[in-house]
Predict the 3D structure of the following.
Amino acid sequence: MNSNSNKHKKPKDRWLDHWLIAQGEPLKRLVSTHALKVANTEKRKRKRSLKHQAAFDRAIEVLVVNLAYLVVRPSNTGCLALIQDDAHGLTRYEHPSLTISTIRKALRLLKGDVLTVRGGRCGIRTSTIRPTEAFIGEVERCGIEPSDFGRDLDEEVVILGITYRYIVRRDEAPIKRRHQVNYKTDDACVAHDRAWVRSLNGLLNSSDLAFIDDGLAPKVCTEDRTMCRIFTTMDALDIRWDLNGRLFGGYWQNLRKDRRQHLRINGEPISDLDYKNAFARLAYIHMDQKPPEGDLYDLTGILAGYDMEHPTHRDGVKAGFNALLNSGAADVPEILQDLPEGTTAEALRKALAIKHPGLVGAFRTNLGLKLMFTESTILMNALDKLMAQGIVALGMHDGVMVAESNQEAARKAMEAASEEVLGIALVVVSKAPLGLLGHRGVLLAA
C-alpha cells in the first residue's frame, strides 16, 4: 500500500445540508431579510400554492443558513457543493420539499446578492456555491454564532450504508467509498429506533452541555449534538438490520482523549466510563470461548518491543485487533505507526493469534459488524436507563460520559444493560482524561 496516497488529495467541498435550520433570532432575521428581498425581486403575477410556497421558503432558508454556517464555521475550500441534475431523485436523507427545480429557482434569485455559482470539483452533476463578500459582512455584523443554527426534527436518523471498493491501480490498495442506501420500507424495530434516537436528540439539544475552550484546533462546537444510528448492509438488494448500528454524530465522539477533561455537563466535569476490553470480550462470547486473564490487548512478551506503558502501543494493538475482526489485515500505516518500531503487519497478526487462539477463526472476517450491533444494543439499553432517570449521558461506541455526580448511576446502568443483553455483566471502568493520570488514566479496576 502506498502510504503517501492520501497526502496530496484535494480538499473536498462541504455538501449542502438539507436539514440545517435557523434556530436563533439573529439568523432567523437574516433569513427573513433575504426572503423579503427575493419576494420583491421576483414580482410574481400568480401566487404559489401554500405547498409550493412552503417549499420555496424552505429552499431560501436552507441556502441562506448553509452559507451563513460556512461563514461562522469555514471549510477548507470556502464552498458548498450541491447536485443540480434532474435525474437525481430525492432520497429519504434529503428534505422532501427541496427538489432540484426548487433549489434552482432559489439559487437564481439569490445569485449576486448572497452567493455566486460555478461548476464544481465534485463531479459533472454538481455545482458549487460561495457566499459573496457582501453576505459575509452581513453575517458578521449580525453577530451570528454557532448556537443560532439548529437541525430539522424530521431529519432521518436511522441510516443504512454500504461500502464499495474501487480498484484504481493494481499496485495500490482499493479505494473505499461509503454510500447511503435509500431503503424504502421500515419494520417495527427500525421505526422504534428512529423514535428512540429522536427522543435522545431532544434531551441532548435541551441539555446544558459545554466545553471550556482550551485554545486548540479544531475549535469545538457544542451545538453539534444530533445523533443517528448507522447500520451497514453487505448487499443493497438484501437489506438487514443486524450489522453495525452504532450511534454517531455528537461533537464529543471525535474529541481527543486529552481534551475530554474540558467537557462539562450541567456545569460539572465529566466521568468517562466504558466496558473493559468490550470488543474483544464480545468476540469471545460470540465464539463461545473463554478469554485469557488480564488485559486482552496486552502483548507483553509476545510482540517484540511491546511496552504496556508506552503511550501508543496498546492503541495500536487494539486497532489491529479490531481491523482483523472487520475483514482487514491490520496492515495500514495508522496502525503500524503506533506499534514498536519495525513491527510488521504479519508480526502483529501472529502475536494476536498467539494471544487469542480461540479467535483465530474470526480473524479476516466481517464478524466485527455483528459485534458492533451487539455493542450498540447494549449502549442504547444503558442510555435508555439513564434517560429514564433524567441523567444526561454522552454516548460513545462502548461507553458513556456523564457528570461526575452521576458516575455511580451510570456504572450501574451499564452493568445492568450488558447483563440484560448478554446474560452476563461486563466490567465497567472509569478513565481520567489523558494528561491528569498518565496515558492510561484508569481510576477504577482496569
User: Anything to note?
Assistant: The chain is about 35% helix and 15% strand. The first helix runs from residue 25 to 42. The longest strand covers residues 158-166. Residues 14-151 form one domain.
